[in-house]
Amino acid sequence: MAVNLSKPERVSTQTIEHYRQNKVKHILTDLEALGVSRLAGAKVLLARGVFKWFAVRRSLIKRKEQWKKSETILYGCLRSAKRERDYYHIAWFRGYIAALQACRADIRHLCKSSRWQAQDNDTEAQRLLREIYEGREDDDSLGVN
């Protein structure tokens, strides 16, 4: 199926993963196509915390990468402890590595979760998501012409 990436208002469960994400500039380009100036759109996104959450997501990804590097170093320490038969530190390194792996898995799950979701405490967003899913794309309440 060919996806028209210049028309995000035609998003569906089948096409959602084809659209670029995680940058304010993509949202501003889409809003510009709807007649909203880039500056006005940027001010709204800034005031509503979108800039922050994109930065937080990026920080989480970087943190996950740092944890992976730490895990590699800890595996070296674990090998040394095994050679020295230092059972206390073997157990300690294993526990630390397991904790890092669990944290990385949690962050990976969050960052790779489906785009087709709304936060649990925003009933309006949940309603709009259902309307989009049900194909009510011409509904004025969605702001799509």
Could you describe the 3D structure shown?
With 145 residues, this protein is mainly alpha-helical. The chain is 62% helix and 0% strand. The chain has 5 helices and no strands. α1 (24-33) crosses α2 (38-47) and α3 packs antiparallel against α4. The longest helix has 34 residues, at 50-83. The chain starts with 23 loop residues before the first helix and ends in a 12-residue tail after the last helix. The model is unreliable at 139-145 (pLDDT under 50).
Series of secondary-structure elements, N-terminal to C-terminal: HHHHH
**Radius of gyration, whole Å:** 22 Å
| Straight-line distance between termini | 23 Å
> What would the average pLDDT be, to the nearest integer?
86
Mind describing the biggest β-sheet?
none
Q: Which outline best applies?
A: elongated
Tell how many strands the DSSP assignment holds: 0
Strand-residue fraction?
Answer: under 5%
Which structural class best describes the helix and strand composition? mainly alpha
**Helix share bin:** 55-70%
Number of contiguous helices: 5
Low-confidence stretches: 139-145
List the helices and strands and how they pair.
Blueprint: H1 24-33, H2 38-47, H3 50-83, H4 87-111, H5 123-133
Helix pairs in contact: 1-2, 3-4
Short account of what is shown:
This protein is mainly alpha-helical and 145 residues long. It is built from 5 helices and no strands.
Features:
145 residues, disordered C terminus
